[in-house]
Amino acid sequence: MTASEPGESRMRALHRATLSLYTDLSLESTLRRVVHAAQELAGATYAALGIPDGKGGLQTFLVAGLNDEESARIPHLPTGRGLIGEMMRGGRSIRLPDLAAHPASVGFPPGHPPMRSFLGVPISAYGRPLGQIYLTDKRGAPEFTQDDQNLIELLAAHAAAAIENARLYQAVQDREAELAQRNEELELVNVLTSAASSTVDLEGMLESILDRVLESFDAQAAEVFLRAEDGGGLTLAVHRGLAGKAFFERTHFRYGEGVIGLVAASGKPFWTDHLENEPRFQRRDVIQAGFGSLAVVPLLARGNVMGVLSVAWLGHHPVAEHDLRLLKAVGGGVGIVIENARLYRQARRLAVLEERERIAMDLHDGIIQSIYAVGLTLDSVRLQSKTERRRPIRENLERAIDGLNAIIRDIRAYILDLQPSRISMENLEEALQRLIDEFKANSLMEADLIVEPGVADSLGSATKAAAFHIAQEAVANVGKHSHATRAWLSLRRTDRSILLQIIDNGRGFESTDARG
Length: 516
What we know:
This protein is α+β, with helices and mostly antiparallel strands.
Protein backbone atom coordinates (compact mmCIF):
# COMPACT_ATOMS: atom_id res chain seq x y z
CA MET A 1 0.00 0.00 0.00
CA THR A 2 1.40 3.42 -0.98
CA ALA A 3 1.44 6.42 1.27
CA SER A 4 -1.42 7.96 -0.63
CA GLU A 5 -3.73 4.98 -0.27
CA PRO A 6 -4.93 5.73 3.30
CA GLY A 7 -5.80 9.27 2.24
CA GLU A 8 -7.59 8.03 -0.88
CA SER A 9 -9.50 5.52 1.22
CA ARG A 10 -10.66 8.27 3.58
CA MET A 11 -11.71 10.46 0.64
CA ARG A 12 -13.74 7.59 -0.79
CA ALA A 13 -15.33 7.16 2.64
CA LEU A 14 -16.08 10.89 2.68
CA HIS A 15 -17.63 10.63 -0.79
CA ARG A 16 -19.87 7.75 0.31
CA ALA A 17 -20.83 9.62 3.47
CA THR A 18 -21.77 12.80 1.59
CA LEU A 19 -23.85 10.84 -0.90
CA SER A 20 -25.75 9.23 1.97
CA LEU A 21 -26.70 12.67 3.28
CA TYR A 22 -29.03 13.21 0.31
CA THR A 23 -30.82 9.84 0.39
CA ASP A 24 -33.43 11.07 2.88
CA LEU A 25 -34.79 14.62 2.94
CA SER A 26 -36.03 14.34 6.52
CA LEU A 27 -34.13 16.90 8.63
CA GLU A 28 -33.72 14.63 11.66
CA SER A 29 -32.47 11.73 9.52
CA THR A 30 -30.00 14.07 7.77
CA LEU A 31 -28.61 15.31 11.11
CA ARG A 32 -28.17 11.75 12.40
CA ARG A 33 -26.33 10.74 9.23
CA VAL A 34 -23.98 13.71 9.68
CA VAL A 35 -23.21 12.67 13.29
CA HIS A 36 -22.45 9.04 12.41
CA ALA A 37 -20.44 9.98 9.29
CA ALA A 38 -18.25 12.38 11.33
CA GLN A 39 -17.71 9.73 14.03
CA GLU A 40 -16.56 7.13 11.50
CA LEU A 41 -14.44 9.44 9.32
CA ALA A 42 -12.49 10.89 12.25
CA GLY A 43 -12.33 7.66 14.29
CA ALA A 44 -13.97 9.33 17.29
CA THR A 45 -15.33 7.46 20.29
CA TYR A 46 -18.07 10.02 20.80
CA ALA A 47 -19.76 12.40 18.35
CA ALA A 48 -22.45 15.03 18.67
CA LEU A 49 -24.18 17.65 16.56
CA GLY A 50 -25.77 20.79 17.92
CA ILE A 51 -28.26 23.15 16.24
CA PRO A 52 -28.45 26.62 17.85
CA ASP A 53 -31.77 28.11 18.86
CA GLY A 54 -30.76 31.68 17.98
CA LYS A 55 -30.85 32.72 21.65
CA GLY A 56 -27.43 31.50 22.75
CA GLY A 57 -28.58 27.93 23.48
CA LEU A 58 -29.17 24.71 21.58
CA GLN A 59 -32.42 23.77 19.86
CA THR A 60 -31.25 20.24 18.92
CA PHE A 61 -28.42 18.08 20.28
CA LEU A 62 -27.84 14.61 18.82
CA VAL A 63 -25.25 12.18 20.24
CA ALA A 64 -23.51 9.05 18.91
CA GLY A 65 -21.36 6.69 21.00
CA LEU A 66 -23.39 6.71 24.22
CA ASN A 67 -25.72 3.85 25.06
CA ASP A 68 -29.13 4.41 26.67
CA GLU A 69 -27.83 3.73 30.18
CA GLU A 70 -24.97 6.23 29.80
CA SER A 71 -27.31 8.83 28.33
CA ALA A 72 -29.75 8.37 31.22
CA ARG A 73 -27.01 9.18 33.76
CA ILE A 74 -26.45 12.65 32.27
CA PRO A 75 -28.86 15.05 34.05
CA HIS A 76 -29.27 17.54 31.18
CA LEU A 77 -28.17 18.38 27.66
CA PRO A 78 -25.50 21.05 27.03
CA THR A 79 -26.74 24.59 27.56
CA GLY A 80 -24.38 26.39 25.17
CA ARG A 81 -21.66 27.27 27.70
CA GLY A 82 -18.01 26.20 27.69
CA LEU A 83 -16.39 25.03 24.43
CA ILE A 84 -19.78 24.69 22.76
CA GLY A 85 -20.54 28.33 23.52
CA GLU A 86 -17.07 29.31 22.37
CA MET A 87 -17.64 27.66 18.99
CA MET A 88 -21.08 29.21 18.64
CA ARG A 89 -19.64 32.66 19.30
CA GLY A 90 -16.42 32.29 17.25
CA GLY A 91 -17.65 30.20 14.32
CA ARG A 92 -14.21 28.53 13.94
CA SER A 93 -12.93 24.97 14.26
CA ILE A 94 -11.29 24.01 17.57
CA ARG A 95 -8.89 21.02 17.94
CA LEU A 96 -7.47 20.16 21.37
CA PRO A 97 -5.41 17.27 22.84
CA ASP A 98 -7.08 17.90 26.20
CA LEU A 99 -10.32 19.84 26.25
CA ALA A 100 -10.12 20.39 30.03
CA ALA A 101 -7.03 22.55 29.48
CA HIS A 102 -8.89 25.08 27.33
CA PRO A 103 -9.77 28.34 29.20
CA ALA A 104 -13.42 28.17 28.08
CA SER A 105 -13.92 24.63 29.39
CA VAL A 106 -16.47 24.38 32.22
CA GLY A 107 -16.21 20.65 32.81
CA PHE A 108 -18.89 17.98 32.60
CA PRO A 109 -22.10 17.49 34.57
CA PRO A 110 -22.35 14.56 37.03
CA GLY A 111 -22.71 11.18 35.30
CA HIS A 112 -21.01 12.37 32.11
CA PRO A 113 -18.28 9.99 30.83
CA PRO A 114 -14.72 11.43 30.92
CA MET A 115 -13.48 12.84 27.58
CA ARG A 116 -10.06 14.17 26.59
CA SER A 117 -9.21 14.94 22.96
CA PHE A 118 -11.63 17.24 21.13
CA LEU A 119 -12.41 18.37 17.60
CA GLY A 120 -15.17 20.90 16.94
CA VAL A 121 -16.14 22.02 13.45
CA PRO A 122 -18.86 24.59 12.60
CA ILE A 123 -21.51 23.99 9.95
CA SER A 124 -22.45 27.16 8.06
CA ALA A 125 -24.06 28.19 4.77
CA TYR A 126 -23.64 31.61 3.15
CA GLY A 127 -22.11 32.94 6.35
CA ARG A 128 -25.06 31.74 8.47
CA PRO A 129 -24.28 29.30 11.30
CA LEU A 130 -26.39 26.15 11.02
CA GLY A 131 -24.77 24.02 13.72
CA GLN A 132 -21.59 22.42 15.02
CA ILE A 133 -20.00 18.96 14.93
CA TYR A 134 -18.31 17.86 18.17
CA LEU A 135 -15.94 14.87 18.29
CA THR A 136 -14.11 13.54 21.36
CA ASP A 137 -11.61 10.81 22.22
CA LYS A 138 -9.77 9.83 19.03
CA ARG A 139 -9.64 6.03 18.89
CA GLY A 140 -6.09 4.66 18.94
CA ALA A 141 -4.44 8.08 19.19
CA PRO A 142 -3.98 10.78 21.85
CA GLU A 143 -5.56 13.52 19.70
CA PHE A 144 -7.21 14.37 16.42
CA THR A 145 -4.94 15.37 13.51
CA GLN A 146 -5.01 18.18 11.00
CA ASP A 147 -6.13 15.64 8.38
CA ASP A 148 -9.07 14.73 10.65
CA GLN A 149 -9.98 18.41 10.89
CA ASN A 150 -9.71 18.93 7.11
CA LEU A 151 -11.88 15.87 6.46
CA ILE A 152 -14.59 16.89 8.93
CA GLU A 153 -14.58 20.45 7.56
CA LEU A 154 -15.26 19.00 4.08
CA LEU A 155 -18.04 16.90 5.58
CA ALA A 156 -19.45 20.01 7.30
CA ALA A 157 -19.61 21.84 3.96
CA HIS A 158 -21.65 19.01 2.44
CA ALA A 159 -23.72 18.75 5.63
CA ALA A 160 -24.63 22.44 5.35
CA ALA A 161 -26.06 21.87 1.86
CA ALA A 162 -27.89 18.73 3.01
CA ILE A 163 -29.36 20.53 6.04
CA GLU A 164 -30.51 23.45 3.88
CA ASN A 165 -32.12 21.02 1.42
CA ALA A 166 -33.84 19.18 4.26
CA ARG A 167 -35.13 22.45 5.72
CA LEU A 168 -36.38 23.63 2.33
CA TYR A 169 -38.09 20.27 1.81
CA GLN A 170 -39.67 20.52 5.27
CA ALA A 171 -40.84 24.05 4.49
CA VAL A 172 -42.40 22.84 1.24
CA GLN A 173 -44.08 19.97 3.08
CA ASP A 174 -45.40 22.32 5.73
CA ARG A 175 -46.64 24.69 3.05
CA GLU A 176 -48.39 21.87 1.21
CA ALA A 177 -50.01 20.73 4.47
CA GLU A 178 -51.10 24.31 5.14
CA LEU A 179 -52.54 24.63 1.63
CA ALA A 180 -54.35 21.31 2.02
CA GLN A 181 -55.82 22.56 5.31
CA ARG A 182 -56.88 25.83 3.65
CA ASN A 183 -58.55 23.85 0.85
CA GLU A 184 -60.46 21.80 3.44
CA GLU A 185 -61.55 25.01 5.16
CA LEU A 186 -62.67 26.53 1.85
CA GLU A 187 -64.60 23.35 1.07
CA LEU A 188 -66.29 23.56 4.47
CA VAL A 189 -67.19 27.20 3.81
CA ASN A 190 -68.55 26.15 0.41
CA VAL A 191 -70.76 23.55 2.07
CA LEU A 192 -72.11 26.25 4.40
CA THR A 193 -72.69 28.64 1.50
CA SER A 194 -74.55 25.99 -0.49
CA ALA A 195 -76.63 25.05 2.56
CA ALA A 196 -77.51 28.68 3.25
CA SER A 197 -78.94 29.09 -0.24
CA SER A 198 -80.75 25.76 -0.23
CA THR A 199 -84.41 25.18 0.53
CA VAL A 200 -84.12 21.55 1.67
CA ASP A 201 -85.14 20.51 5.16
CA LEU A 202 -83.10 21.89 8.04
CA GLU A 203 -82.20 18.50 9.50
CA GLY A 204 -80.72 17.32 6.20
CA MET A 205 -78.64 20.48 5.91
CA LEU A 206 -77.35 20.17 9.48
CA GLU A 207 -76.44 16.50 9.01
CA SER A 208 -74.43 17.37 5.89
CA ILE A 209 -72.64 20.20 7.68
CA LEU A 210 -71.83 18.09 10.75
CA ASP A 211 -70.39 15.32 8.58
CA ARG A 212 -68.03 17.86 7.03
CA VAL A 213 -67.14 19.25 10.47
CA LEU A 214 -66.25 15.75 11.73
CA GLU A 215 -64.01 15.18 8.72
CA SER A 216 -62.34 18.61 8.79
CA PHE A 217 -61.57 18.58 12.52
CA ASP A 218 -60.86 14.83 12.81
CA ALA A 219 -63.50 14.66 15.55
CA GLN A 220 -65.58 11.66 16.61
CA ALA A 221 -68.92 13.32 17.45
CA ALA A 222 -70.77 16.55 16.70
CA GLU A 223 -74.22 17.87 17.54
CA VAL A 224 -76.44 20.90 17.14
CA PHE A 225 -78.80 22.24 19.80
CA LEU A 226 -81.43 24.64 18.48
CA ARG A 227 -83.08 27.46 20.36
CA ALA A 228 -86.83 27.15 20.64
CA GLU A 229 -88.54 29.89 18.63
CA ASP A 230 -90.45 30.92 21.74
CA GLY A 231 -87.16 31.21 23.68
CA GLY A 232 -87.92 28.21 25.89
CA GLY A 233 -84.40 26.75 25.98
CA LEU A 234 -82.37 24.56 23.65
CA THR A 235 -83.21 21.13 22.25
CA LEU A 236 -80.90 18.57 20.65
CA ALA A 237 -81.75 18.64 16.93
CA VAL A 238 -79.03 16.58 15.20
CA HIS A 239 -76.22 14.30 16.36
CA ARG A 240 -73.57 12.74 14.11
CA GLY A 241 -70.73 10.40 14.97
CA LEU A 242 -70.12 7.96 17.82
CA ALA A 243 -71.97 7.33 21.10
CA GLY A 244 -75.37 8.69 20.05
CA LYS A 245 -77.09 7.09 23.04
CA ALA A 246 -74.68 8.81 25.46
CA PHE A 247 -75.21 12.23 23.89
CA PHE A 248 -79.00 11.76 23.96
CA GLU A 249 -78.76 11.39 27.77
CA ARG A 250 -79.88 15.04 27.87
CA THR A 251 -81.83 16.51 24.95
CA HIS A 252 -82.91 19.81 26.49
CA PHE A 253 -81.08 22.57 28.38
CA ARG A 254 -82.29 25.86 29.77
CA TYR A 255 -80.31 29.02 29.10
CA GLY A 256 -77.31 29.10 31.43
CA GLU A 257 -77.70 25.40 32.30
CA GLY A 258 -74.67 23.19 31.68
CA VAL A 259 -72.04 23.91 29.05
CA ILE A 260 -74.67 24.05 26.27
CA GLY A 261 -76.84 26.58 28.08
CA LEU A 262 -73.78 28.57 29.18
CA VAL A 263 -72.59 29.10 25.58
CA ALA A 264 -76.12 29.96 24.43
CA ALA A 265 -76.56 32.50 27.23
CA SER A 266 -73.14 34.14 26.89
CA GLY A 267 -72.67 33.90 23.13
CA LYS A 268 -69.02 32.95 23.78
CA PRO A 269 -67.25 29.69 22.86
CA PHE A 270 -66.19 27.04 25.36
CA TRP A 271 -63.48 24.40 25.03
CA THR A 272 -61.66 21.89 27.23
CA ASP A 273 -59.34 18.93 26.72
CA HIS A 274 -60.10 17.55 30.19
CA LEU A 275 -63.86 17.08 30.03
CA GLU A 276 -63.86 14.79 33.06
CA ASN A 277 -62.77 17.76 35.21
CA GLU A 278 -65.50 20.11 33.97
CA PRO A 279 -68.28 20.25 36.63
CA ARG A 280 -70.68 22.16 34.35
CA PHE A 281 -70.80 19.33 31.81
CA GLN A 282 -73.88 17.35 32.82
CA ARG A 283 -73.87 14.32 30.48
CA ARG A 284 -71.61 11.91 32.33
CA ASP A 285 -72.40 9.06 29.89
CA VAL A 286 -70.43 10.97 27.25
CA ILE A 287 -67.36 10.91 29.50
CA GLN A 288 -67.93 7.22 30.23
CA ALA A 289 -67.91 6.64 26.45
CA GLY A 290 -64.31 7.91 26.34
CA PHE A 291 -64.75 11.52 25.26
CA GLY A 292 -62.26 13.85 26.94
CA SER A 293 -62.18 16.96 24.72
CA LEU A 294 -65.01 19.30 23.77
CA ALA A 295 -65.47 22.57 21.88
CA VAL A 296 -68.81 24.40 21.88
CA VAL A 297 -69.50 27.53 19.82
CA PRO A 298 -72.65 29.65 19.46
CA LEU A 299 -74.64 29.62 16.21
CA LEU A 300 -75.08 33.33 15.51
CA ALA A 301 -77.24 35.14 12.97
CA ARG A 302 -77.45 38.95 13.02
CA GLY A 303 -76.19 38.95 16.61
CA ASN A 304 -78.83 36.48 17.83
CA VAL A 305 -77.99 33.03 19.20
CA MET A 306 -79.87 30.45 17.10
CA GLY A 307 -78.35 27.48 18.95
CA VAL A 308 -74.97 25.91 19.69
CA LEU A 309 -72.58 23.61 17.81
CA SER A 310 -70.73 21.03 19.92
CA VAL A 311 -67.72 19.02 18.65
CA ALA A 312 -66.16 16.21 20.74
CA TRP A 313 -63.00 14.11 20.53
CA LEU A 314 -62.13 10.80 22.15
CA GLY A 315 -59.35 11.14 24.71
CA HIS A 316 -57.42 14.34 25.28
CA HIS A 317 -57.23 16.37 22.07
CA PRO A 318 -55.90 19.91 22.61
CA VAL A 319 -58.04 22.41 20.71
CA ALA A 320 -55.74 24.78 18.81
CA GLU A 321 -56.57 28.47 18.64
CA HIS A 322 -56.78 28.19 14.86
CA ASP A 323 -59.34 25.35 15.12
CA LEU A 324 -61.42 27.36 17.57
CA ARG A 325 -61.45 30.38 15.24
CA LEU A 326 -62.55 28.18 12.34
CA LEU A 327 -65.27 26.59 14.49
CA LYS A 328 -66.54 30.06 15.44
CA ALA A 329 -66.71 30.94 11.73
CA VAL A 330 -68.58 27.69 11.07
CA GLY A 331 -70.96 28.57 13.91
CA GLY A 332 -71.73 31.90 12.22
CA GLY A 333 -72.40 30.13 8.92
CA VAL A 334 -74.63 27.50 10.52
CA GLY A 335 -76.53 30.24 12.36
CA ILE A 336 -77.35 31.87 9.00
CA VAL A 337 -78.39 28.49 7.60
CA ILE A 338 -80.80 27.97 10.52
CA GLU A 339 -82.24 31.47 10.23
CA ASN A 340 -82.78 31.07 6.48
CA ALA A 341 -84.41 27.67 6.98
CA ARG A 342 -86.76 29.08 9.63
CA LEU A 343 -87.65 32.06 7.47
CA TYR A 344 -88.35 29.72 4.59
CA ARG A 345 -90.47 27.51 6.84
CA GLN A 346 -92.41 30.53 8.11
CA ALA A 347 -93.00 31.70 4.55
CA ARG A 348 -94.16 28.24 3.57
CA ARG A 349 -96.41 28.04 6.64
CA LEU A 350 -97.93 31.42 5.78
CA ALA A 351 -98.53 30.29 2.19
CA VAL A 352 -100.24 27.11 3.37
CA LEU A 353 -102.36 29.01 5.87
CA GLU A 354 -103.41 31.42 3.13
CA GLU A 355 -104.26 28.48 0.87
CA ARG A 356 -106.25 26.85 3.66
CA GLU A 357 -108.14 30.08 4.22
CA ARG A 358 -108.92 30.25 0.51
CA ILE A 359 -110.11 26.62 0.48
CA ALA A 360 -112.17 27.27 3.61
CA MET A 361 -113.85 30.26 2.00
CA ASP A 362 -114.53 28.31 -1.19
CA LEU A 363 -116.02 25.43 0.78
CA HIS A 364 -118.03 27.74 3.01
CA ASP A 365 -119.35 29.99 0.28
CA GLY A 366 -119.82 27.30 -2.32
CA ILE A 367 -120.14 23.65 -1.35
CA ILE A 368 -121.51 24.07 2.15
CA GLN A 369 -124.10 26.64 1.01
CA SER A 370 -125.18 24.33 -1.80
CA ILE A 371 -125.50 21.35 0.51
CA TYR A 372 -127.31 23.52 3.04
CA ALA A 373 -129.76 24.56 0.34
CA VAL A 374 -130.37 20.91 -0.51
CA GLY A 375 -130.97 20.25 3.16
CA LEU A 376 -133.58 23.04 3.27
CA THR A 377 -135.30 21.57 0.26
CA LEU A 378 -135.34 18.12 1.79
CA ASP A 379 -136.64 19.59 5.03
CA SER A 380 -139.48 21.20 3.12
CA VAL A 381 -140.32 17.87 1.50
CA ARG A 382 -140.37 16.25 4.91
CA LEU A 383 -142.91 18.81 6.18
CA GLN A 384 -145.06 18.14 3.18
CA SER A 385 -144.83 14.40 3.71
CA LYS A 386 -146.20 14.78 7.24
CA THR A 387 -149.44 16.14 5.98
CA GLU A 388 -149.73 13.34 3.43
CA ARG A 389 -148.93 10.69 6.06
CA ARG A 390 -146.24 9.00 4.02
CA ARG A 391 -144.08 7.65 6.80
CA PRO A 392 -141.50 5.77 4.66
CA ILE A 393 -140.77 8.89 2.65
CA ARG A 394 -140.41 10.93 5.80
CA GLU A 395 -137.94 8.46 7.34
CA ASN A 396 -135.80 8.38 4.23
CA LEU A 397 -135.76 12.13 4.02
CA GLU A 398 -134.75 12.38 7.65
CA ARG A 399 -131.86 10.05 7.08
CA ALA A 400 -130.80 12.12 4.05
CA ILE A 401 -130.91 15.31 6.08
CA ASP A 402 -128.87 13.73 8.87
CA GLY A 403 -126.35 12.55 6.27
CA LEU A 404 -126.05 16.00 4.75
CA ASN A 405 -125.54 17.55 8.17
CA ALA A 406 -122.82 14.99 8.88
CA ILE A 407 -121.15 15.90 5.57
CA ILE A 408 -121.19 19.56 6.55
CA ARG A 409 -119.58 18.74 9.91
CA ASP A 410 -116.94 16.61 8.19
CA ILE A 411 -116.09 19.36 5.72
CA ARG A 412 -115.75 21.86 8.54
CA ALA A 413 -113.49 19.43 10.40
CA TYR A 414 -111.48 19.02 7.21
CA ILE A 415 -110.96 22.77 7.05
CA LEU A 416 -109.66 22.92 10.61
CA ASP A 417 -107.74 19.67 10.94
CA LEU A 418 -106.41 17.62 8.02
CA GLN A 419 -106.16 13.98 9.05
CA PRO A 420 -103.55 11.53 7.71
CA SER A 421 -104.72 9.06 5.09
CA ARG A 422 -105.18 5.37 5.78
CA ILE A 423 -101.86 3.62 6.28
CA SER A 424 -100.97 -0.09 6.17
CA MET A 425 -99.77 -1.57 9.47
CA GLU A 426 -97.63 -4.25 7.80
CA ASN A 427 -94.41 -2.23 8.21
CA LEU A 428 -94.71 -0.18 11.39
CA GLU A 429 -91.58 1.89 10.76
CA GLU A 430 -92.81 2.90 7.29
CA ALA A 431 -96.27 3.61 8.71
CA LEU A 432 -94.83 5.87 11.43
CA GLN A 433 -92.62 7.62 8.89
CA ARG A 434 -95.60 8.29 6.64
CA LEU A 435 -97.56 9.55 9.65
CA ILE A 436 -94.71 11.94 10.47
CA ASP A 437 -94.39 13.05 6.83
CA GLU A 438 -98.13 13.80 6.56
CA PHE A 439 -98.07 15.52 9.94
CA LYS A 440 -95.22 17.78 8.76
CA ALA A 441 -97.04 18.53 5.51
CA ASN A 442 -100.34 19.31 7.24
CA SER A 443 -99.07 21.16 10.30
CA LEU A 444 -95.88 22.78 8.94
CA MET A 445 -94.19 21.70 12.17
CA GLU A 446 -90.73 20.09 12.04
CA ALA A 447 -90.91 16.45 13.18
CA ASP A 448 -88.40 13.58 13.35
CA LEU A 449 -88.80 9.83 13.71
CA ILE A 450 -86.18 7.75 15.55
CA VAL A 451 -86.74 3.97 15.43
CA GLU A 452 -84.18 1.64 17.00
CA PRO A 453 -83.25 -1.08 14.47
CA GLY A 454 -85.22 -4.31 14.84
CA VAL A 455 -87.70 -3.01 17.42
CA ALA A 456 -90.65 -2.45 15.04
CA ASP A 457 -90.26 -5.88 13.41
CA SER A 458 -90.31 -7.62 16.81
CA LEU A 459 -93.92 -6.53 17.53
CA GLY A 460 -97.03 -8.53 16.70
CA SER A 461 -99.70 -7.24 14.31
CA ALA A 462 -102.09 -6.15 17.06
CA THR A 463 -99.33 -4.38 18.97
CA LYS A 464 -98.18 -2.63 15.79
CA ALA A 465 -101.70 -1.35 15.14
CA ALA A 466 -102.08 -0.19 18.74
CA ALA A 467 -98.69 1.55 18.67
CA PHE A 468 -99.57 3.32 15.43
CA HIS A 469 -102.94 4.58 16.67
CA ILE A 470 -101.38 5.76 19.94
CA ALA A 471 -98.74 7.61 17.94
CA GLN A 472 -101.43 9.03 15.64
CA GLU A 473 -103.43 10.41 18.55
CA ALA A 474 -100.30 11.78 20.27
CA VAL A 475 -99.14 13.52 17.10
CA ALA A 476 -102.62 14.98 16.57
CA ASN A 477 -102.61 16.34 20.14
CA VAL A 478 -99.21 17.95 19.56
CA GLY A 479 -100.58 19.65 16.47
CA LYS A 480 -103.75 20.85 18.19
CA HIS A 481 -102.61 21.84 21.65
CA SER A 482 -98.83 22.15 22.10
CA HIS A 483 -98.11 25.34 20.10
CA ALA A 484 -94.77 23.65 19.34
CA THR A 485 -92.42 24.15 16.39
CA ARG A 486 -90.69 20.77 16.57
CA ALA A 487 -91.54 17.25 17.70
CA TRP A 488 -89.71 13.92 18.04
CA LEU A 489 -91.37 10.49 17.85
CA SER A 490 -89.19 7.58 18.96
CA LEU A 491 -89.63 3.82 19.29
CA ARG A 492 -86.87 2.04 21.19
CA ARG A 493 -86.14 -0.85 23.49
CA THR A 494 -85.43 -0.33 27.20
CA ASP A 495 -84.16 -2.88 29.71
CA ARG A 496 -87.56 -4.55 30.20
CA SER A 497 -89.95 -3.09 27.62
CA ILE A 498 -90.42 -1.25 24.35
CA LEU A 499 -90.97 2.50 24.70
CA LEU A 500 -93.01 4.66 22.32
CA GLN A 501 -92.32 8.31 23.15
CA ILE A 502 -93.23 11.68 21.67
CA ILE A 503 -91.47 14.89 22.74
CA ASP A 504 -92.19 18.44 21.60
CA ASN A 505 -90.82 21.88 22.41
CA GLY A 506 -94.27 23.33 23.06
CA ARG A 507 -95.70 24.97 26.14
CA GLY A 508 -96.76 21.73 27.90
CA PHE A 509 -98.68 21.71 31.17
CA GLU A 510 -98.05 21.15 34.87
CA SER A 511 -98.75 17.56 35.93
CA THR A 512 -100.37 18.87 39.10
CA ASP A 513 -103.01 20.57 36.94
CA ALA A 514 -104.03 17.35 35.16
CA ARG A 515 -107.50 15.95 35.83
CA GLY A 516 -109.01 12.51 35.41
